[in-house]
Specification:
8 helices, 3-stranded antiparallel sheet, 11 strands, 37% helix, elongated, alpha+beta
Length: 250
């Protein structure tokens, strides 16, 4: 458990009321942390621990002080060899690092593909996006194990999105989807993938503009700095781009 959430009271409640053991790092400013653990100055390699029923609070100095709370461990230590160097570590630190290794790896794999970057005041939306993103990562791991391939995460996500669009985007037979009929599929601008782009500066104009084809059809003389490169037409950013690529009679 992370020190942001952890406390001796939480560890005790999990053990007594839910029969669940836990181990995690602990902030020294939490309530009910023993005074001796807070104030004791340790040298490198030293350990101090205090117990209260099933709860153990332990402070260990490696390069700097690290404090743990556990309902499963005591101050027992174990010799560990890493990179040819032998060190003595508390058993709770070893188990904590083993458990947190998977969490850290998950966070590292998700870091470049975060879908919850946008700030929002609704916490449940952010939680849903995080769980959805973790689900995609889990599906990637299962896919790799099932197929024996080592597909990159970006390629997998692209294939997943394309597969979902292929399977579900055109279901519904003859019903209209955003004013679009099945017969409209012969129009390239309604079925291909198009992306809006800003008009590139020209030698004579630093900010070139083109007349919006949707606005022009409705009798509006409106220009835009955006266009669709595939269709080679000017389009407004707000609604016209969507209308032009989803409705036959825009």
């Amino acid at each position: 458990m992370d020190n942001y959430y952890n406390s001796p009271e939480l560890a005790r409640a999990l053990k007594q009321h839910h029969s669940t053991d836990c181990v995690g790092t602990l902030k020294l400013n939490r309530k009910n942390v023993p005074k001796e653990v807070k104030e004791k100055k340790l040298k490198k390699g030293e350990i101090i621990a205090r117990h209260s029923g099933p709860v153990t609070v332990l402070k260990w100095c490696r390069q700097k002080n690290v404090t743990f709370v556990s309902t499963y461990h005591n101050e027992e230590t174990r010799r560990v060899t890493k990179r040819g160097k032998e060190t003595v570590k508390p058993l709770c630190a070893i188990d904590y690092n083993y458990g947190m290794g998977g969490v850290d790896l998950k966070d590292q794999l998700l870091h470049m593909f975060l879908v919850e970057r946008k700030r929002t005041t609704k916490w449940y939306i952010k939680l849903f996006k995080r769980l959805l993103n973790a689900t995609v990562l889990n599906s990637l791991i299962i896919f790799r194990q099932a197929t024996g391939t080592s597909i990159e995460q970006l390629s997998y996500r692209i294939q997943l999105v394309e597969g979902l669009f292929t399977k579900y985007a055109r279901t519904g037979g003859e019903r209209n989807i955003q004013g679009r009929r099945a017969s409209d599929n012969t129009v390239p601008r309604l079925q291909e993938r198009h992306f809006i782009r800003k008009l590139a500066p020209k030698s004579e104009k630093s900010k070139p503009q083109r007349r919006c084809v949707v606005c022009s059809k409705h009798g509006k003389k409106k220009t835009s700095v955006y266009c669709c490169q595939e269709c080679d037409v000017g389009l407004c950013l707000e609604e016209c781009f969507e209308l032009y690529h989803t409705k036959l009679n825009y």
